[in-house]
């Protein structure tokens, strides 16, 4: 276990760079270009809020985290997420986007192990095409091969986000919900196993696991407590779901708020964290 002295995690307020891999839930339309990287004037690398999969010209959780829930300052966001991607897509994002873009810490993008948080939120699209547990383990094994490479490049602070409760989305008929949940729950359980294994041999990493499943479940169970309508949980085009599977910007606001609260929970002396433990 890392001690406070050898940990690279000094708390969320010390983060200066966010590096994100994932799918449509995190996509802001950033295309890496050496002459157009994130900067103080353009912290997303694209005009705010980017091109998201929420409503037109509306932020997703990344934009809200940047603008409303920052730790006292705006950080720079290198968001390589691409809508529709699975774990194979994250491999592409790391190998063909992140590494050529800022993997070697070029001038103008001098991230460090201390001031950078690497975020991975993936799995929804994998589960749409996955039928068995072995495929889940194979996908997660491939994902953590990539995390190991990020570690070799200097990444030390990692945030992993599990799969949300999409079995309760309009995309899934209620009669199929239990079947979808079975494999989804397995993914989330195994994600925690892989995170634990990853951290067990790398004593200077901080690994945090944020449960979007828990947040979505709370909101879907009690929508009115979060400012939604009782009719929203299964409604396509309602307050929670923009369409069959993508959250509205209002829902993304709740995601960002909850992620920020989670990150603020862990001080410089913490090495692991998991919202599922709460």
Automatic annotation (TrEMBL):
Keywords: Hydrolase. SUPFAM superfamilies: SGNH hydrolase. It comes from the Eukaryota. Coiled coil: none annotated. GO terms for molecular function: hydrolase activity, acting on ester bonds. This is Carbohydrate esterase family 16 protein. It comes from Cerrena zonata.
